[in-house]
Fold:
Amino acid sequence: MTSQIEVSDRPAPPSEPGVGPAELARLSELATLVTAAQDAMSDDIVTRLSAALNEGMILLDRLTRNQALMRLLHTLERAECQNLLEALAEALAATSRDLAKGRAADGGLGGWVRLLRDPDTCETLRLVSVLGSHLSRNLQASRAPDSSSS
Amino acid sequence: MRILVVGGGTGGTIIANNLARRLSAELRTGKVSLTMLSASDRHMYQPGLLYVAFGQMMPDTLYRDQASLLEASIEFHVDPVKHFMLDERRVKTQSDRVFDYDILVIATGSRMVPEEIPGLVEGSETFYSEAGAIKMYKALRNFKGGRVAIVVGVPHKCPIAPVEVTFSLHDYFKTRGIRDKVEIKYHYPINRIHSIENVAKWAKPEFDRMGVAYETLFNLKEVDVQNKVIHSEEDTEYAYDLLISIPAHRGMAVIEENRLGQAGWIPTDRHQLTMEGYDNVYVLGDTTNLPVSKTGSAAHFEAEVIADNIASIVKIGTPVREYDGKVYCFIEAGHDQATYAMFNYLNPPDLKPANKSMHWFKMSYNQMYWSSVRGLL
Ligand SMILES: Cc1cc2nc3c(=O)[nH]c(=O)nc-3n(C[C@H](O)[C@H](O)[C@H](O)COP(=O)(O)OP(=O)(O)OC[C@H]3O[C@@H](n4cnc5c(N)ncnc54)[C@H](O)[C@@H]3O)c2cc1C
Structure:
């Protein structure tokens, strides 16, 4: 009797998070998925995945701590550099097409003279010489004693 | 400040790389120099030897060129130290070169000494060297059944290895379908089956489940190679067909010869990790006399503390950290299950039941080791 009264007097328990048949089915689905993944894996797969991850981490670490490379990436983010890269890539593609189409250059002094008369050749030489002078100026600047502190 | 690291194994490599990262600015400006002297141009992942012994790894996969693991700012020489002149703050190498230092780090590791037990070298298989692990694998492959005895000498590096090799033997013979033809008996020198109490408590029911017999308080006296019998100091014996041994270890001979520590174990302050009597000499890894397991993981945690302290001495003139005795050991409980033990000076390990995920964690770590010694993990 007493216990009956106690039971009826007790406040209703707070509602427990329900685990109905739908949730159970989902849980069992999840368990099947985990078991399937476990069964599909092997020591070799785990070893290969870890080795790849490991090498990737080492590479990333090297790249991100290479100050010159990080500065280069920074420089390459500038729009003018990206244009230049695009121009370079297109020029390379066009060069390979032209080389495949055109006939081989003539040898000898005559061939040289003909090549030098071509305005494109003169423009190319100008480009290379401007590039060379900038490169040499930059190299001199990076060799200056106080430039290493950056 | 001249920092000299002697030993290019687990501890030495981690500490040198950690220092190179922490002191990169000082190294660039020449305020600090960092030199490593080692005995080999190759670095071996020693835990892999257990897998070699069971044909699960090829020995060449355990090696990397030592130079490739080191930061570019570390000056590396393969020129082992012969003489430590601690009062003069210098060492002399095999090639008679002298290296002066302000701070010295000693991480020369340990070596097994099976030759101290008569018959052990000729009579047993051990996986504690590359040649030994390959030989053990061949012996296992040729084994058709009979009595396998495991004997353990103390101290030895990787204290978990005796139980790991026992589990692996059980699984290996099971996979080959001959487990019922093999009797495995494990012998251990103290009065329980492992020196770490909770590991002993965990392993005992596992041994019972696998049908592995064990004898504790068995201190190997000699191996009668002719009759294939092992004898203990306690006057017991066991006849075997295949004997697997984990021989007792000492520190390197150079440590003993220079009287830096008895049996090659250097007296080390348990929190500062300095050599007793020398504040500018740090010791880590197997060669300390600390009451922690001789493991790569202990060497790793010690290296972190020492690197922090040396870097802070350079930067602010005083050390900042203390070592708490932390060790983390994976325990391979056979070929596809593992668990782990983590403990320190104050807290014993609390072992969880072995499972497959921990085994894969260990498999992954076998690869991640190379990031770890580079100071990345
Ligand atoms: C089979 C096996 C399984 C293992 N399993 C595990 C494991 O699962 N987990 C774990 O944490 N640990 C494990 N270990 C232990 C771990 O490998 C060692 O505890 C760890 O390598 C110790 O690091 P250390 O730097 O003190 O010595 P080591 O790594 O042995 O390095 C010592 C270095 O000192 C150099 N050296 C020696 N003499 C001189 C000299 N005179 N001058 C200069 N250099 C010198 C050597 O060339 C070497 O480079 C295992 C070991 C073995 C053998």
